[in-house]
Design brief:
Radius of gyration of chain A: 26 Å
Number of helices of chain B: 14
Distance between the termini of chain A: 48 Å
Order of helices and strands of chain B: HHHHHHHHHHHHHH
Strand content of chain B: under 5%
Helix content of chain A: 25-40%
Structural class of chain B: mainly alpha
Shape of chain B: flat
Number of strands of chain A: 18
Oligomer: heterodimer
Largest interface: A-B, 70 and 69 residues
Chain lengths: 545, 310
């Protein structure tokens, strides 16, 4: 190495510095001019095959590229026409007929047909494919039997193409939320010739979703996909409702690191962030015309109690633990008022459903219950371990609750943090006493939360099993004649559940985004659902700072 | 020389086989699997998924099948990204990481080299202590801290440089290169100071001074080549270290490099991706070790003679 080399180096670095001084227009300014939304998407999508993928980042992109039989109105969350123009439900609620929009086309110009759905649902349910969301179609007659390999003949499954534009489905029981499931990506129709051209019908590993291959049917089509960098979509000119689509494109960024995402928002590289760091909330909340959007979200944060294990096999102990907690204080301190204290598993206001409140914060009652269980003022307490997955926020919450239990009941709780997959394994094997848990709804219906705690519920993980509860959820609720009657049954069931207290609900989640004031048509809603067809950019809006 | 290289390459093969085997079995010991998620997976679905990834075979069968694929240069499909092969993910991420590592090395060499040489010219004076203390801070300051500080300063308050991205806007490679390079700059400063101090006390330097050369020529013409030998040996290893250690910087700056894939793969239990990137990086490190030995021999005549005798 000589000084000559060093000189060149200095030159290169100076050039860099000079280039930097000429920083151009921000993404947001440019995007507002060209109607391109810069969207913080949280993570690199696993893939874009609607039947295969499972996460939120994937579903956001897929909702731009594809469209289901129905879509949701982002303001009301009620179902609206998508590929289906309208649908008829038979009087017994067991048959639904979808009338497809004759204008609905694939992005290569092919018309969409009812047969596309029959073929696609066969693929979605194919037992060899291992689709984790295949169960979304289980309300269909014989779908579960086909998906688990009990029957081989797909014609026995309750879906039939009457003609090119009429699709008829038969259900096992009346399923009021079935229409809603039609906007979930696992029920989407896919373009058969494209998939078959690039591999086996049921292959997980085929390249049909690549930019050069993919054919979709949504308001946008795939334009560019650079791994871990960005994914861009542009407006589709074959989409049936293209006149209502106002964005000319969307760029999705895999913003895994939430602090980086917030910084990108601050320098106007993003219109929208997937979330916001907890410690930034007070700052943004204090702003005038704040870009911070906080809204209730269809999810509950709770602790699982393993009711087979002492001391939690005693109902009095479970109730004492739950009643001793001051959820308001947890929310106002650790959580910066960003969430809503919860006393039930179902989030309040789930499409009009209000869960029962069977207990409240009551330290004296909790002390009394604990004394009755044999641990007056914590004497003789055998100890209890709380398992949670490694994360700063879970830790903060656990420490706060640990102290509340100590203060209120004089009992010691030990904390055990585990790496994510280890934790999942512990919960699955019920290898814990008390464990942190969160549940996010897949569709807006109390059933989605309450069926967790069926005796054979795959996500029960508590040991709770009540035949009457099962009867209410599985038999009576589907037979209800009206929404009110159905909700009354759910309310009874949830009351039974919370009286047995196999879980300690802590708070209802909220969605937290930073949204640039120029972004319109992206209202807060319980599902944190985005319908890009509604979104537009108001170029007259200036930055907030 | 050729015999030496051939011998070292042969030595590398069993090393790699051990790496493959240990990694293969070690990741299986970790609890939890690639398909575990917060929502329980239906048993039939789980079985179908396992069959698709050959996890239904015995562990030993999986191992031999994997070695067979590996022999054909195939790292297999990724668990986390269905539809992508591990080869593809590495091919997408590695060039970015290599470029980042290269710039970081340039930064390290520029800052560290200059600081070390300056310090060595007047040992135990302010000219020595100040750059060396700065270098010490560089070693101690993790990139987790330095990155956000640089971003806040140059990206947000001064608004000179982009806060994230890679090749998307001009200048977005500067802050990551500085963040990643600064820790290595500190090492290079210390190494070059030590190397230069040793050389500057040699007889031939005194001769050069005695014949009346100006000091800067003494340093640049005579001292530098000998004084930088330890640095060059370190550089090659540092490059290998940068390639496998850029995860934090890649995350902070949203850089689409291999480091992010690698670390996420461990969290996701993406077996094939963990194995693929481990083998890939291990091969690189073995290769760079060899390169470092060859370079050291080439720069040091005494070693060169020994090797010829081999």
């Amino acid at each position: 190495m000589r000084f000559g080399g060093l000189k060149n180096l200095c030159l290169v670095l100076t050039c860099f510095a000079l280039m930097a001084c000429g920083r151009g227009e921000s993404n947001v300014a440019q995007g507002n001019r060209e109607a391109i939304l810069h969207f913080g998407n949280g993570a690199e999508p696993q893939g874009l095959d609607p039947h295969v993928v499972t996460g939120i980042p994937e579903s956001l992109i897929i909702n731009a590229l594809f469209e289901g039989l129905t879509v949701k109105n982002p303001y009301t969350l009620e179902s609206e026409p998508g590929v289906a123009q309208r649908w008829d439900i038979s009087d017994d609620g067991m048959t639904i007929t979808f009338h497809l929009n004759p204008q609905a086309k694939w992005s290569n110009g092919d018309p969409m047909t009812a047969e596309d759905y029959v073929w696609s649902w066969r693929r979605a349910l194919n037992p060899g494919m291992g689709n984790q969301y295949g169960y979304m179609l289980y309300p269909l007659k014989n779908a579960e039997e086909f998906a688990t390999g009990k029957i081989d003949d797909f014609s026995e499954v309750g879906v039939k193409a009457i003609d090119d534009h009429t699709l008829q489905v038969q259900l096992n029981t009346p399923t009021p939320y079935f229409i809603q499931l039609m906007d979930h990506h696992s029920t989407f129709a896919l373009h058969r010739p494209t998939i078959q051209k690039h591999g086996k019908d049921t292959g997980r590993f085929t390249p049909w979703t690549r930019v050069e291959n993919i054919v979709s049917n949504g308001p946008f089509r795939l334009k560019e996909w650079q791994l871990n960098r960005r994914l861009s979509v542009e407006k589709s000119d074959t989409y049936w409702d293209r006149d209502r689509v106002q964005l000319s494109g969307i760029v999705f960024y895999p913003t895994e690191n939430i602090s980086s995402e917030e910084r990108m928002f601050r320098v106007e590289q993003l219109h929208y962030t997937q979330t916001i760091p907890l410690e930034k909330m007070p700052v943004y909340r204090a702003m005038k015309d704040s870009p911070y959007a906080n809204a209730p979200y269809l999810g509950t944060y709770y602790y699982l109690l393993n009711i087979n294990e002492p001391p939690l096999d005693d109902l009095r102990v479970r109730r004492a633990l739950s009643m001793a907690l001051d959820r308001e204080r947890l929310n106002s301190t650790v959580l910066h008022n960003s969430n809503v204290p919860a006393f039930s598993i179902t989030p309040p206001g789930t499409l009009g459903y209000q869960p029962p409140v069977v207990f409240d914060h009551n330290i004296e009652a909790a002390q009394k219950l604990l004394a009755e269980a044999g641990y007056p003022n914590g004497e003789g307490w055998p100890g209890l371990e709380l398992t949670y997955n490694t994360s700063e926020s879970h830790l903060k919450i656990a420490v706060a609750l640990q102290q509340m239990w100590k203060d209120a009941l004089n009992i010691d709780i030990t904390l055990a943090n585990q790496e994510w997959k280890v934790y999942l394994d512990s919960v699955d094997q019920m290898n814990f006493q008390m464990a942190r848990r969160g549940w996010i709804g897949d569709y807006v219906d109390p059933n989605n939360f309450l069926d967790l705690f069926l005796c054979d519920g795959g996500n029960n993980s508590t040991g709770f099993c009540d035949p009457i509860y099962d009867e209410l959820i599985k038999r009576q609720a589907p037979q209800a004649k009206s929404r009110e009657e159905r909700y009354a049954i759910f309310n009874d069931a949830e009351t039974r559940l919370m009286e047995q207290m196999p879980i300690i609900p802590l708070y209802t989640y909220t969605s937290n985004h930073l949204i640039h004031p120029s972004v319109k048509g992206l209202p807060p809603n319980l599902m944190d659902y985005v319908n890009f067809r509604y979104v537009w950019l108001d170029r007259d809006q200036e930055a907030v700072e | 020389m050729l015999r030496f290289i051939g011998f070292r390459l042969l030595q590398a093969l069993p090393v790699l086989l051990v790496v493959i085997t240990v990694t293969f079995f070690l990741i299986r010991v970790a609890p939890g699997g690639p398909f575990d998620s917060e929502k329980a997976v239906i048993p039939e679905v789980q079985a179908a998924l396992e069959a698709q990834y050959r996890l239904n075979l015995t562990l030993f069968q999986q191992y031999t099948a994997y070695l067979g694929d590996l022999f054909h240069g195939d790292f297999g499909p990724s668990f986390k990204y269905p539809g992508r092969s591990v080869n593809e993910l590495i091919a997408a991420g590695f060039p970015v990481t290599a470029e980042l590592a290269f710039y970081a090395l340039l930064v390290a060499l520029t800052i560290g080299g200059i600081a070390g040489i300056v310090a060595s010219l007047k040992p135990n004076s302010a000219q020595d202590y100040i750059p060396m203390s700065v270098a010490m801070i560089g070693i101690c300051m993790p990139s987790l801290l330095l990155g956000p500080i640089l971003i806040l300063l140059f990206g947000i308050y001064l608004d000179w440089l982009p806060v994230s991205g890679w090749g998307d806007s001009p200048g977005d490679k500067i802050l990551p290169a500085i963040t990643l390079g600064s820790a290595y700059a500190a090492y290079i400063a210390r190494l070059s100071r030590a190397g230069m101090l040793e050389v500057m006390s040699q007889d031939y330097i005194r001769t050069a001074r005695a014949k009346g050369l100006p000091e800067w020529q003494v340093v640049s013409r005579h001292a530098l080549r000998g004084g930088m030998i330890p640095v060059v040996a370190f550089l090659v290893l540092a490059f290998a270290g940068l390639l496998s250690g850029s995860f934090v910087v890649e995350t902070i700056f949203q850089i689409p490099g291999l480091g992010r894939f690698y670390v996420q793969a461990a969290f996701n239990r993406d077996y094939t991706m963990i194995l693929g990137s481990t083998i890939f990086l291990a091969t690189l490190i073995v290769f760079f070790n060899l390169l470092s030995d060859i370079l050291a021999a080439w720069m040091n005549p005494r070693l060169r003679d020994q090797m010829r005798a081999l």
